[in-house]
Design goal:
There is one protein chain. This protein is an alpha/beta fold. The chain folds into two domains: 184 residues, Isopropylmalate Dehydrogenase; 140 residues, Isopropylmalate Dehydrogenase (3-Layer(aba) Sandwich), CATH 3.40.718.10. It has twelve helices and twelve strands. The chain has a ten-stranded mixed β-sheet with strand order 2-1-3-10-9-4-5-8-6-7, sandwiched between helices. It has a two-stranded parallel sheet with strand order 11-12. The longest helix has 16 residues. The protein starts with a strand and ends with a helix. 49% of the residues are buried. It binds 3-isopropylmalic acid and magnesium ion.
Length: 356
Amino acid sequence: MKIAILPGDGIGTEIVAEAVKVLQALGLGFEMETALVGGAAYEAHGHPLPEATLKLAMQADAVLFGAVGDWKYDTLDRPLRPEQAILGLRKNMGLFANFRPAICYEQLVDASSLKPELVAGLDILIVRELTGDIYFGQPRGRRVATDGHFPGSEEAFDTMRYSLPEIERIAHVAFQAAMKRSKRVTSVDKANVLETFQLWKDVVTEVGQQYPEVALDHMYVDNAAMQLVKAPKKFDVLVTGNMFGDILSDAAAMLTGSIGMLPSASLNSKGQGLYEPSHGSAPDIAGKGIANPLATILSAAMMLRFSLNQAAAAQRIEAAVKSVLQQGLRTADIYSAGTTKVSTKQMGDAVLQALR
Ligand code: IPM
Ligand code: MG
């Protein structure tokens, strides 16, 4: 089984190195091949998603991805910015279904910014549509710089768009996920204002009729944001579009104590997947060895379960993560008084130790 390893930029290289160590320690004989992506690829090859990197990802059984981006690329033409690499991978591989589970580990209840009783036992799943919406709308208009200056009188626009089949397929994914959980789906939209999301609501309702055992409700995105911090445990599966899912999953991350804990899986209709932490490249802490590698290590566990048919190995990793948390080991983002602060590498080593 072949895994494409795409560490990317910023803390991406540090956290992916720890996840690779963990995968190797399983002794399952994975073939792993690393390639540049994002700003690192732009520096070396003049493009954030070089042909060879895309080819490696498409031919692999699964992709383990770190993070991309740095403020220093903010002035590049949009097609050359690091973020286009992850968007290009998602689009080219057809990775329309993004799973972002937010689980609050018992040991991290105090690391959340919310009161312990609101998050203790939290286990929700955000299903985010990943290849449509305003992220990939056409046409797209942009401000044009003259002589490096923005004239200010220009306008810019992006188009929000969803088609019926795009909504149908992600709705099925959400209902099927709910069937394996508490059988509740909340569809998040903005149907009160946007046509795109009236269609979304109508189609999700229709698909829901095929899953009579699943209770479906609808919520406007602003209310969903509020409910997520008011009573997050009322949710089971949340399904939403690309943009709302991006925002709500960052909010949900903080319920678990830190965005450094949140893994994700992005799947296409063939079961091929890309696995990445939900957080970004964090250039402000890159190179300091303090990033939390657990989101990436947990993403590797999702990869074993969803793409590589190795559920037992996935469970071993998840148990090892719980065990290091139980031992009181914490990277800076989840540190609290009375626990032991560790570096990125020490955290990876501790997971290895616990695996054995
Ligand atoms: C995410 C990220 C990406 C997104 C960026 C890096 C393009 O924020 O995966 O949530 O907006 O989808
Ligand atoms: Mg995001």
